[in-house]
């Protein structure tokens, strides 16, 4: 079953360097009001309303991106979190968005960021697909992380403190540093931490950038920890890319 999952993962999260024939673009619809391809407007609105920004870094050819738009962001359960963020959809291959792409690089599509509007720093990062429940948990963690960090109340014993460090290091291209922070987050977190699967995706994604041997090793040893989640296929896809 594990190897079947690995093979199925070939159609999972989208690598920037491997484009497929573009499907018809999906619309950002549902209970969420999106600011499309206008970072200045999203930033101004977030600062005025004192909300964090959710950045959807996507591309028109990315099937996982379109699936998230069609089936997750449109889910009625997302209405509960719709008003807590300013939602910025950023086409990462549109030339007009070059400044945002430079500020928040993405090697894997889709990438989702919770950004503190006051400092324009990353408070949380998600790579690949998610279920509606997973994504709502990610948003809650991102919101909590930004609030606690502002208040200086995010202790080293909280895995979110290390997750933030990892996400920021990865976003800045410091992937070896990010790998260490993700490992620390996983080590201090309880065994049933619901964020474990997606943090493993972030960890193996950074390992892919710096050491394909360690990337494959992590794929072989940690696959079982991703469970029956949307992150399992994304984790397996990264392991396959390193192995190949």
Structural class: alpha/beta
What kind of sheet is the major sheet?
Answer: 5 strands, mixed
Give helix and strand order, one letter per element, not per position. HEEHEHHEHEEEHHHHHH
CATH H-tier superfamily: Glutaredoxin
- Beta strand count: 7
CATH architecture: 3-Layer(aba) Sandwich
Q: Which percent bin holds the helix content? A: 40-55%
SS field, number of helical segments? 11
Structure report:
With about 240 residues, this protein is α/β, with parallel strands linked by helices. The chain contains 11 helices and 7 strands. The strands form 2 sheets. A 5-stranded mixed sheet has the order 2-4-3-6-7, sandwiched between helices. It has a two-stranded antiparallel ribbon with strand order 1-5. The chain starts with a helix and ends with a helix.
Q: How would you summarize what this structure contains?
A:
By secondary structure, the chain is an alpha/beta fold.
Write out key terms for the chains shown.
244 residues, alpha/beta, Glutaredoxin
Question: Which helices and strands appear, and what pairs or packs with what?
Answer:
Layout lengths: L1 H7 L5 E2 L18 E3 L2 H11 L3 E6 L4 H10 L6 H4 L3 E6 L6 H6 L4 E2 L1 E6 L4 E7 L4 H20 L7 H13 L3 H14 L7 H15 L1 H11 L7 H14 L1
Parallel strand pairs: 2-4, 3-4
Antiparallel strand pairs: 1-5, 3-6, 6-7
Helix pairs in contact: 1-11, 7-8, 7-9, 8-9, 9-10, 9-11, 10-11
